[in-house]
Amino acid sequence: MTIENKTVTLTTAQAIIRWLAAQYIEIDGVETRVCGGGFGIFGHGNVTCLGEALYNHRDELPVYRGQNEQGMGFAAAAYAKYHLRRRFMFASASAGPGTANLLTSAALAHANRLPMLLLCGDAFLTRLPDPVLQQLEHFGNPTLGVNDAFKAVSRFWDRITHPAQVMNSLPAALNTMLDPADCGPAFIGLPQDVQGWTYDYPEAFFEKRVHRIRRQAPDMEEVIDAVALLKTAKRPMIIAGGGVQYSGAVAELTAFADATGIPVVETIAGRANMTNDHPLNCGPIGVTGSDSANTIAEKADVILAVGTRLQDFTTGSWTAFAHDAKIVGINVGRHDAAKHMSLTVVGDAAICLASMDTDYKAPTDWTAFAQEERAKWDAYVAENCKPGNRPNSYAQAIGVVNDLMDPRDRVVAAAGGLPAEVTANWKTLDIGTVDVEFGFSCMGYEIAGGWGARIAQAEKEPDADTVIFTGDGSYMLMNSDIYSAVLTGKKLIICVLDNGGFAVINKLQNNTGNESFNNLIADTPTAVNQVGVDFEAHARAMGANAETVSNPAELGEAFKRAKAATNTSVIVMNVDPYEGWTTEGHAWWEVGTPHITTSDKVREKHIEQEADRHKQRKGL
């Protein structure tokens, strides 16, 4: 009998996990499991069947017990980001609110084009016990439930209604997650009864399979057109996005820039494509960028946008570039390559850049101008991060920590003011060591994402550290993965910078002429008992080392102790909510302001905001 005719009887859940354990990926000539394991919180919707299957594969696919499903999803996203989308983890939640908690993290993964497998409980397919605990009933559509909400935030969505379907669904989900152009979260709904149903699966389905990430070659006609346009450039610029790292194109980008002398600016996602000291690294671009990059951008006549989706923080809501600047979109995703009437080169960034064989050289005076602008920005950052130059600030904390980092340490930040401050002030010490989650600008990613990043980092670089910057607002939203890190022995260094509320939104409120209201705790009328949070005591209660410092010098000494420790450490420092912000390097950003108001200040700021709208490029 041939192996194709051999079968094995398994439940749906057993088949899913056995298949996952058999999937490998080749990375730099080494085969490893493409799924690194998963995160799970068990409930009645996933414990009895999926939990049973996971127990029997606990060595091949380790399951990390989360404290919050949203945090599990963030951790899975950060794990995938660390592995440059070549490996992923699953997140499993019970039916109902457990699954609903994963919606935000699925949206984050979707916005950031990150692979994540969501294995979530669902209502009974037979409907015999309906309505069951935590089931949402839609009177006119009994098939509709919470899981359908994931259709908007998934690249692949399926609900298993028969055990045989996993033989089609699982490969389709994996192919989506590993596709450079379509990469994103895959959702599979698992009705509670179907999870336990059996089927005679062909044993061949569970044979080891080795996958490779597809490298799509560009159409050479598109490359020829791009090179022809580049040769007309008097003031060229490269925007390097996160896709440069995902495609493994850092070497090709650097070689192309060195050969042509074209200045390179980085997006937030591409913040560690070049080290800080590379002579053609001209800084971060956009709303939270640098004067150097934005000055170059507004003068550039030909822009090579490599591996970027050109979101509004990169483009300054499309005011950062001259109206007549020509854009070449180099991207594996057609959707991103074609934005704003770009000349498209659709394909893998490494192959595209290597294919652009040209003897073109940027004018030396243009390259020199870009480097002079970068030197000015470096001087500003040095002064901006200097301790004691003003009240405690984010920039001071960033500067102190940056100076004490080892080259392969990883920094993680997300929503609030810290992404802007890290993006503008961080000096990249090594390639791929910066994770600023600003694709979905998601509060709560910091600690949970740091935990996921540390799990991945420990697999490859156990001696490096994961360092997290978080504000008090994000800490209050989601902090329980401090406990997860302690439980699993995945050491984190967490810097909690307390500015008394949502200070960056208070700054936006004030900058648009509005009075401080409901952002800082002190300016919240309903906060009748002005009590501060003892973050140090709270972190200690979850098993972490913790201390509170009063200034950047003390922060530096505490950071050294945290580096030497083996346990997770939390360092708390107050920062001023009004002074100390990075005031330079900002491009225009479109926010909605009132067209009519009784406030003179709001009216003036609306007029001021609209005054720069003429810079905005038109196009899709």
Automatic annotation (TrEMBL):
Residue stretches making up the Thiamine pyrophosphate enzyme central domain: 225-354
Alphabetized UniProt keyword annotations: Hydrolase, Thiamine pyrophosphate, Transferase
EC number: 3.7.1.22
GO molecular function: 3D-(3,5/4)-trihydroxycyclohexane-1,2-dione hydrolase activity; acetolactate synthase activity; flavin adenine dinucleotide binding; magnesium ion binding; thiamine pyrophosphate binding
Entry-linked Pfam families: TPP_enzyme_C, TPP_enzyme_M, TPP_enzyme_N
A GO CC term assigned to this protein in UniProt: acetolactate synthase complex
Classification via InterPro entries: DHS-like_NAD/FAD-binding_dom, Myo_inos_IolD, THDP-binding, Thiamin_PyroP_enz_cen_dom, Thiamin_PyroP_enz_TPP-bd_dom, TPP-bd_CS, TPP_enz, TPP_enzyme_TPP-bd
Domain of life: Bacteria
Domain Thiamine pyrophosphate enzyme N-terminal TPP-binding residue range list: 39-134
Residue ranges, annotated region (Disordered): 599-620
GO biological process assignments: inositol catabolic process; isoleucine biosynthetic process; L-valine biosynthetic process
Domain Thiamine pyrophosphate enzyme TPP-binding: 436-572
Class of enzymatic activity (EC top level): hydrolase
Transferase in keyword set: yes
Basic and acidic residues composition bias: residue spans: 599-613
Family: Belongs to the TPP enzyme family.
Protein name in UniProt: 3D-(3,5/4)-trihydroxycyclohexane-1,2-dione acylhydrolase (Decyclizing)
Record organism: Yoonia ponticola
Lineage: Bacteria, Pseudomonadati, Pseudomonadota, Alphaproteobacteria, Rhodobacterales
